[in-house]
Each structure stands twice: as C-alpha cells, then as structure tokens.
User: Fold this.
Amino acid sequence: MSISDRLRAAAAKVLAGDDSMIAAQQLEGVIIEEYLHEEQTDELLYALSMYSPGSDQPYVDAPELRNLIAATLNDMRHGDASQEA
Assistant:
C-alpha cells in the first residue's frame, strides 16, 4: 500500500517527538480522510482516538503511540506478514 505525502508528514511530526494533541489530531484526520477503510490503519486510528497527553491516565501514551505509528507505516510499506501467512 502506498503512503501519501500527507500521512508521511503527519506521522513524521509525531515520530520526531511532537506529543501534542494537535499533531495527533492532524494524523488522525489524514487517516480518516485517506485510509478509513484500510485494515492496516485500524489499530492506529483507535489508538489516536484514545490518546490524551497531559491527562493523569492516558489510555495510550506517547511512546506507545510512536511505536504503533512506526509499525503501521512499516506494515503499509511491506504488507502485514500475518496476512500473508
């Protein structure tokens, strides 16, 4: 699956350390607009909906979100190995 420039840019911002809600919402918006019905983005989209930096108990914290973004992009680039088996 190809990764759009918009998704690449929004993901790069968070991966570079921007833990803000604004960055997360921008990434979420790109996924909703461009990849809503793609199974490979489902888990990331769910995590973004649960992301709440600065709250006492975030459902998803920034390191976990960054790991999930990286894994999702990798799956999109190379295909999900579990689906190929």
The helical segments are 5-15, 21-35, 42-50, 62-78, 81-84. The mean pLDDT is 89. The radius of gyration is 12 Å.
